[in-house]
Design brief:
The complex is a heterodimer of chains A (about 120) and B (about 110).
Chain A (H helix, E strand, L loop, with lengths): L3 E4 L2 E4 L4 E8 L5 E7 L6 E7 L2 E5 L6 E7 L2 E7 L7 E8 L10 E2 L3 E5 L1
Chain B lengths: L2 E3 L4 E5 L4 E3 L2 E3 L6 E7 L6 E7 L7 E2 L2 E6 L4 E6 L8 E9 L2 E4 L3 E6 L1
Parallel strand pairs in B: 2-12
Antiparallel strand pairs in B: 1-4, 3-9, 5-6, 5-10, 7-8, 8-9, 10-11, 10-12
Amino acid sequence: DTEVTQTPKHLVMGMTNKKSLKCEQHMGHRAMYWYKQKAKKPPELMFVYSYEKLSINESVPSRFSPECPNSSLLNLHLHALQPEDSALYLCASSQDRYRVNTEAFFGQGTRLTVV
Amino acid sequence: AQTVTQSQPEMSVQEAETVTLSCTYDTSESDYYLFWYKQPPSRQMILVIRQEAYKQQNATENRFSVNFQKAAKSFSLKISDSQLGDAAMYFCALYSNYQLIWGAGTKLIIKP
């Protein structure tokens, strides 16, 4: 199983809503990542979890709250988002963040629209 | 600072022909990896090919090959016998110093 599964695939939410994005992998990877991607741009790193601990937070606003309940699961909780937060949110995993030959596997993303 | 530069925002190629996508990078690290990822309209980022910096031999994966020029810090992707399914955004990426640095991407159009 070399898949990273993200749910939902599409999400429309109002600025006062609370929602969560979910990411799951069963490859035994110990690093998991959240990226934000705008159209025709490269992904921008948001958060990195290494061995279930948050190791990088790229100055992301607090309206985005990551959670790693176990080594296979990664959530991104959303609250009071702004329209400019509309984007594709990609989850990725890799064997170990600190290995140079680490290859990242990506999910299909969640297309988020904030109205 | 570590950077990745893709100077071609868009490229087009006739089906069955060969196309080369350019990528240059900069890093002060001696141990690093280079990747080409493909992102089709389905949105999933798919690894196409990777190159270890300490290996002089260019990586190949079926119709995909790279021209890795370490001294020039160049890492171009050659796609042979282009197929309609190759149409996608292609991103060059550098893994160095525990970070994955992305290029701006090249949109590849395949003409039937």
